């Protein structure tokens, strides 16, 4: 609870700058919380709200961060209306009950990057971030270029490289 209050106190309507990753997290959270509330999955909704709160805490001050704090307040309001109303009043925005649900940009809901696990001899040695749908040959090249993977291979002959697109690269040495 104190964590949320601390975040609400950091709202700055005059901040400038963008953080695309935070914008993506905000829109994904708003959409997911709306679905969770409709499905009466309040525990999931609260968990997603705390994930967004963590992302906001880690973000640098920017217009995106201020928009995320505002959206956080709006998605908190169905489950904790008393806290949301008090924080909304501190921001000087009237009543949160009269505010519209945050709009979601459908383009930000789609993940364009994936995290891929790289294994050597069946053991996780590294993770790489790559564009979604990257061809197998490019994934192999990225995995083999990793410094951690090179240390694990240690000059051994590579017998086979197994690629599961957008998920895993397994190097058999």
The tally of strands reads 4
Strand content: 15-25%
Quick one: biggest sheet? 4 strands, mixed
Q: Which word captures the global form?
A: elongated
Number of domains: 2
Category by helix and strand content: alpha+beta
CATH topology of the largest domain: Isoleucyl-tRNA Synthetase, Domain 1
Describe it.
- The chain has 8 helices and 4 strands; from the N terminus they run ααααααββααββ.
- The termini are far apart.
- The model has no long low-confidence stretch (mean pLDDT 84).
- Helix 2 packs antiparallel against helix 3 and helix 3 packs antiparallel against helix 4.
- The chain has 173 residues and is of the alpha+beta class.
- Helix content is 51%, strand content 16%.
- Strand 3 and strand 4 form a beta hairpin.
- It has helices spanning 2-8, 20-38, 42-58, 63-76, 81-91, 106-109, 136-145, 147-153, and strands at 113-120, 123-131, 160-164, 168-172.
- The protein folds into 2 domains: 2-109, Isoleucyl-tRNA Synthetase, Domain 1, CATH 1.10.730; 113-172, Ubiquitin-like (UB roll).
Give the topology.
Blueprint: H1 2-8, H2 20-38, H3 42-58, H4 63-76, H5 81-91, H6 106-109, E1 113-120, E2 123-131, H7 136-145, H8 147-153, E3 160-164, E4 168-172
Parallel strand pairs: 1-4
Antiparallel strand pairs: 1-2, 3-4
């Amino acid at each position: 609870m104190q964590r949320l209050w601390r975040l609400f106190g950091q709202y700055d309507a005059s901040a400038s700058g963008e953080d695309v990753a935070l914008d993506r997290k905000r829109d994904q959270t708003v959409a997911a919380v709306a679905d969770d509330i409709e499905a009466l999955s309040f525990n999931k909704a609260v968990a997603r709200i705390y994930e967004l709160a963590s992302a906001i805490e880690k973000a640098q001050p920017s217009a995106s961060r201020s928009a995320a704090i505002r959206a956080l307040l709006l998605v908190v309001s169905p489950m904790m209306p008393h806290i949301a109303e008090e924080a909304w009043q501190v921001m000087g925005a009237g009543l949160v009950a009269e505010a519209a649900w945050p709009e979601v940009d459908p383009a930000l809901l789609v993940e364009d990057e994936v995290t891929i696990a790289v294994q050597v001899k069946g053991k996780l040695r590294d993770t790489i971030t790559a564009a979604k749908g990257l061809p197998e040959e490019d994934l192999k090249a990225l995995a083999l270029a990793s410094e951690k993977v090179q240390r694990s291979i240690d000059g051994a002959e590579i017998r086979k490289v197994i690629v599961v697109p957008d998920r895993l690269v397994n190097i058999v040495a």
